# Entry
Amino acid sequence: MADLRSDVIDVLNDLIENSRDGEYGFRTLAERVEGTRLKQLFTDRSVQCAQAAQELSQWVRAQGGTPADGGTASGALHRGWVKVKGAMGADSEVSMLEEAERGEDAALARYRKALKEDLPADVRALVERQAQGAQQNHDQIKLLRDEARAHS
# Structure
């Protein structure tokens, strides 16, 4: 049982890093966009990702584990790319929505990977609920990106 618990903690720590990437990434996007609608959307998504990380961290602690405390290297690179694009003047609404969608694609892939693991029922329910939220975020951002493309 200890191995299963350790494996589950590893899966959840991966998702904590994923959530931190989302938190930091959406915060970066909120700082780069001009429009108040997208600024608010990205700020709200950042808060939701922070809440998801906190929820996962609580479960890890309850199992005697140590929650991951940061994001991933690929997430940091993605945020750096957003800043570079902005510095080069490529921080249009479409561009920022494309970057947000790219980040959500990565998040969904990590949730799908986690759901392939043997997880206790309560953990599976938590991960499934968060995965559904990530899918909804992705779909909304994709819709907004498509609308922005149509108007540019």
About this structure: The mean pLDDT is 85.
